[in-house]
Automatic annotation (TrEMBL):
SUPFAM superfamilies: N-acetylmuramoyl-L-alanine amidase-like. Residues 64-221 form the Peptidoglycan recognition protein family domain. Belongs to the N-acetylmuramoyl-L-alanine amidase 2 family. It comes from Candidatus Terrybacteria bacterium RIFCSPHIGHO2_01_FULL_43_35. GO terms for molecular function: N-acetylmuramoyl-L-alanine amidase activity; zinc ion binding. Gene3D superfamilies: Peptidoglycan recognition protein-like (3.40.80.10). Residues 1-28 form the signal peptide. It holds the Pfam family SpoIID. GO terms for biological process: peptidoglycan catabolic process. This is Peptidoglycan recognition protein family domain-containing protein. InterPro entries: Amidase/PGRP_sf, Amidase_domain, PGRP, PGRP_domain_met/bac, SpoIID/LytB_N. Keywords: Signal.
């Protein structure tokens, strides 16, 4: 084909650009040459004749034949690599109308004999590209929609069919995602030097026909120039792209058929398609009115706008016979969707789903299928593209009481649709579990279910590791409460034969509770202090003198020596100053400057300039349209201020409706500092059925030129903000809670001090989990432990170079914490972030909620699961923070 000219540029190839895929923003890097150089010897000499022929569709030579994924995804190992399943209603969109075709070459090294080889089986190349994309890059599938080999064979690439979002063209310099609304075609080989490595004729012909086919079935004009909307993300202050926020605010003007270098200037995939567009347009005109049917089928379809539409053929109409796999790339136009209760699966995958509330819920095993009373003959088969029309819901749970396990030894019991881990094999006879009834499912399916609390021994059970001098615990309210000595063990008339011997890991599942209390009348003291305490109704009372001690008839031999930590579990009551005081009921006392041990209390260090003045933070709650009103009321008198109008005074309970204005900043300012603002028009469902739409502080409605949106902003003190963060629930160990809230405060104040997370934005953070999950005042009411931890650590931050750190945290997973430089790159590779260098191992017996790190569970900084375990074994919150954030110190930046 004449006129196909390739321009060489000395930049990364199409295969090596930054790509946004499945909410992962990959950094630009060169091609992994192992894809080519590590081709196994078996790949050489594989007879190319073993592959399907490179001819066009036998019914019409103008229509290309597209070989299905099964041509190269031909083993269980390869099928299991694909973990990404597109959905119709995903954000960013998994499906969009096709607007352009973007062509790439592989960019392999020409020095490799396998690069432009006609003797290497192309299936091996595709499989290695797939492994690199899905496994090494973590994209869970191959990035290209179609692949063309040197013999002209066309292969289906990305799972999901016509219009699915690929992973081949993301322009990170502009935060523009060209994967949405485009088709990515990969040419196997390197064609950057046309005089040395010209495009094979068969490959050129297939590129023409494939482009024409895509144009004909999606209504494209290949010779036209279009200006289309591009999905665009927000650029944040460190220069990276915030993939959690995006819309169709970008634009691109250019040819419909183009190369990667046309989309991203400087990319080496730069082709001159002038003549190719003209030739492809001729083919488009020839095939655009064709109808299609499967072999041995009477049903015919026309394909327009990416949809199969039923067609009744006449004598003059040409109907082309086409493989079912190629027709299945398109959804069939239907007037109604399948009803609830329908069983379905795709032709290419084994997973069966049931439709419930319009969503498909996976049935994770044949045992579950049978137990739910379903019938195999009622399963309806759909194409992959047709299946994606139904949003993916949660997997169908097993009935209560069902026992399941994955590849590991852990066994779980289903209760209320959630998994509960059975923490010890010794629990099987206690709860009458049967080993023979355990159902084996995949780890992927196991992780798709939510987890409830672990199954522990019943209250009253005695547990221990059985090691010499190991602590014996008594289980009470699901906690392990230590019995501090065998003297107390005997006083409680317990029997050592009843102690369950567990592993350290099994014991670790029980959160630590307070020490088991000594009986009333017990005398206690600590090793390092001479004060003697009298235990009465759970309180400790100081016997003020030896005279009182003797007068009360106590014996020095009856004194039990315990640790200061155990003694601190008892609240202090009034002093016993004379014998008669013993008969008085204990009354709690408030401590002064001295602790109950008689030692001066210690204070946390403060940095120079620390004051009682805390910082103010601005939180973006949600964006709204210019015509969308917001309804607000306050439980106290308040003022409405506008930059373009006079102030308005309102009474408590007055409800106002406000429409945003680009020329005016509108603020709601309560006259009572403790007032609560309700945003009546805002829906933010809480787990308890309520609506988290109440906030402390002030509210603001303003236009942001950075994001070009109107925002509802909550402005309040940092300490009030922290009380509404929903990253931690009730029931956590107090030391973990203090460590976590100190990290959350450090994270917030880091961004307050640098002016916000997103350059030019009018708020510091938003209220999503991508920043910190903020729910406001209603959450504060139901999360007492969060409030207690905030109060206990007021003003405390982890700091580096006298500044609050960017205290990244996540749930964590087995293995050392990750280096932020390797995970996120950019500014995290500078000397400002040594505390996020990773390499921290969690304590033994840590229980993980996730089996691996991911984009959301990044494993950088504080590992929540590991921090919980540290707290349970007695590590205080200061040392938890110093462990996960090396090179930092704990400081108090306000009092």
């Amino acid at each position: 084909m004449k006129g196909l000219v390739v321009y060489k540029a000395f930049f990364a190839t199409a295969f090596a650009v930054a790509i946004l895929f499945f909410a992962i923003c990959a950094q630009a890097q060169d091609i992994d040459q192992n894809i080519i150089t590590n081709i196994t010897l078996d790949a050489y000499g594989q007879p190319i004749t073993n592959l399907p022929p490179s001819t066009q569709n036998s019914s019409n030579s103008d229509v290309p034949q597209i070989l299905p994924r099964s041509t190269w995804e031909n083993t269980i190992e390869l099928k299991n690599l694909m973990l990404w399943f597109p959905e119709e209603d995903h954000v960013p969109p998994d499906y969009a109308a096709i607007e352009r075709i973007i062509v790439h070459d592989l960019g392999c090294s020409l020095s490799s004999p396998a690069c432009n080889s006609d003797t290497v089986n192309p299936v091996y190349l595709i499989q290695n590209i797939y492994r690199f994309h899905a496994a090494q890059r973590g994209w869970d599938d191959i990035g290209y929609n179609y692949i063309i080999d040197r013999q002209g064979r066309i292969y289906e690439g990305k799972f999901g069919g016509n219009g699915v979002r690929g992973a081949h063209a993301y322009v990170s310099s502009r935060c523009e995602n060209f994967n949405i609304g485009s088709v990515g075609i990969l040419l196997l080989g390197n064609y950057s030097s046309p005089q040395i490595t010209p495009l094979p004729e068969a490959m050129q012909k297939s590129l023409v026909r494939l482009s024409a086919w895509i144009a004909a079935t999606n209504g494209l004009d290949l010779t036209g120039v279009s200006t289309e909307k591009i999905w665009k993300n927000i650029k944040v202050s460190d220069g990276s792209c915030d993939i959690s926020q995006g819309d169709w605010s970008g634009t691109f003007s250019g040819p419909v058929l183009l190369s990667h270098g046309d989309v991203e200037p400087g990319n080496s995939d730069k082709f001159d398609f002038t003549n190719l567009r003209i030739e492809a347009k001729l083919y488009t005109d020839k095939i655009k009115n064709l109808a299609y049917r499967e072999n041995n089928s009477t049903s015919a379809y026309k394909i327009s706008d990416g949809v199969l539409r039923e067609f009744v053929s006449g004598s003059q109409d040409e109907v082309v016979v086409m493989p079912k796999t190629q027709l299945d790339l398109f959804p069939i136009e239907v007037s109604t969707k399948l009803p609830d209760g329908t069983l379905l699966r795709s032709y290419t995958r084994d997973r069966i789903y049931v439709i419930e509330n319009g969503k498909r819920r996976g049935i994770t095993s044949s045992e579950l299928f049978t137990s739910l009373g379903y019938k195999w003959e009622e399963v309806k088969l759909l194409s992959d593209r047709g299946l994606a029309l139904y949003p993916l819901g949660d997997s169908k749970p097993y009935p209560d009481g069902a026992l399941v396990k994955g590849n590991g030894p852990e066994v779980y019991k289903f209760e209320s649709s959630a998994l509960r881990y059975i923490t010890s094999t010794a629990l099987f006879p206690i709860f009458h579990f049967s080993w023979s009834k355990i159902i084996k499912i995949s780890d992927k399916d196991l992780n798709s279910y939510s987890q409830g609390p672990p199954i522990l021994f019943p209250d009253g059970t005695l547990i221990s590791t059985g090691k010499p001098k190991a602590i014996i615990y008594k289980v009470e309210e699901g906690q392990k409460r230590p019995i501090s000595s065998m003297i107390l063990f005997a006083k409680l008339k317990l029997n050592s034969k009843n102690v369950k011997k567990l592993s350290e890991k099994e014991v670790s599942y029980y959160p630590s509770g307070k020490y088991i209390s000594w009986p009333d009348g017990t005398l206690l003291k600590t090793k390092d202090n001479d004060k003697i305490w009298y235990i009465q109704k759970g309180f400790k009372r100081w016997i003020q003198s030896a005279v009182v001690f003797k007068a009360a008839g106590f014996s020095w031999k009856s004194i039990n020596v315990i640790s200061a930590d155990e003694l601190s579990d008892y609240p202090e009551a009034q002093v016993i100053a004379k014998k008669a005081d013993i008969k008085a009921a204990p009354v709690a006392v408030v401590q002064g400057d001295q602790t109950s041990s008689g030692q001066a209390s210690s204070e946390q260090p403060t940095i120079p300039g620390a004051t009682s003045q805390e910082s103010i933070i601005r939180i973006g709650i949600y964006s709204l349209l210019s015509t969308e009103s917001i309804s607000i009321s306050v439980n106290s008198a308040y003022t409405i201020t506008r930059t373009s109008a006079a102030d308005e005074q309102k009474n408590a309970g007055d409800m106002v409706n406000i429409v945003p204005s680009q020329n005016s900043v509108i603020r709601i300012i309560p006259k009572d500092d403790n007032a609560i603002i309700t945003v009546n028009s805002y829906s933010n469902p809480a787990y308890n059925g309520g609506n988290d739409n109440t906030f402390r502080g002030k509210m603001e409605i303003a236009y942001s030129s950075a994001s070009q949106k109107y925002w509802v902003i909550n402005e309040l003190s940092v300490e009030s903000y922290l009380k509404g963060i929903a990253e931690m629930g009730n029931g956590e160990h107090p030391e973990y809670a203090k460590a976590f809230m100190t990290a959350a405060r450090s994270y917030a104040l880091h961004y307050v001090q640098i002016g916000g997370k997103r350059a030019g934005e009018i708020f510091h953070l938003n209220n999503t989990s991508g920043d910190q999950w903020y729910k406001g005042y209603n959450f504060e009411l139901r999360a007492k432990d969060t409030v207690v931890a905030v109060l206990a650590t007021r003003g405390m931050v982890a700091s580096f170079n006298s500044k609050p750190i960017l205290a990244a945290y996540s749930s964590g997973a087995p293995g050392p914490t990750k280096n932020a430089c390797l995970v996120w790159g950019g500014k995290f590779c500078t000397a400002d972030f040594p505390y996020l260098g990773g390499g921290v191992d969690d304590p033994p017996s840590t229980v993980y909620k996730n089996i691996a790190c991911s984009d959301a569970n990044h494993c950088v900084g504080l590992d929540a699961d590991g921090a919980r375990q540290m707290a349970s074994i007695g590590v205080n919150f200061e040392n938890i923070l110093k462990t996960y954030y090396s090179s930092t110190i704990l400081t108090q930046i306000y009092k």
